[in-house]
Write a structure and sequence with these properties.
The chain is built from five helices and two strands; from the N terminus they run H-H-E-H-H-H-E. It has 124 residues and is mainly alpha-helical.
């Protein structure tokens, strides 16, 4: 009889711990994605979320004198290698005094500067 009670108690503790772990791991209901009754609705929701993220990213100004590699790669046509080249150039020659100076960085060029001009700054 004691063994059965001990096993029940262990089961109770295990279930409570598992439930608590699930509660901790579950996202806040304010951040959870809604449920959908069909794939088309889910797809439209995901497209809207992606568009909102892209729009927010495209409106963010990047200070090329302070930006990290992660911030620089959000610019159109700037990948990890070019971002590292920008940082290296900045370290070697000092801060950019004008946005157009960014074209001096090997691999960046005037076209990339023009594509991103609205998002680039040299001041805080």
């Amino acid at each position: 009889m004691k063994d059965r009670h001990k096993a029940s108690f262990i089961n109770l503790i295990t279930n409570a711990a598992f439930g608590f772990a699930l509660l901790i791991m579950m996202p806040n209901s304010g951040n959870a994605a809604p449920c959908f009754d069909n794939p088309q609705s889910a797809y439209k929701y995901l497209l809207a979320q992606e568009n909102a993220k892209t729009q927010a990213r495209d409106q963010t100004t990047v200070n090329i004198n302070r930006a990290s590699e992660g911030e620089l790669v959000t610019l159109h046509g700037i990948g990890s290698n070019k971002a590292q080249a920008i940082i290296l150039y900045r370290d070697m020659f000092g801060d950019f005094e004008a946005v157009d100076e960014l074209a001096r960085v090997k691999g960046v060029g005037k076209k990339n500067v023009e594509k991103n001009r609205g998002r680039l700054s040299v001041q805080d």
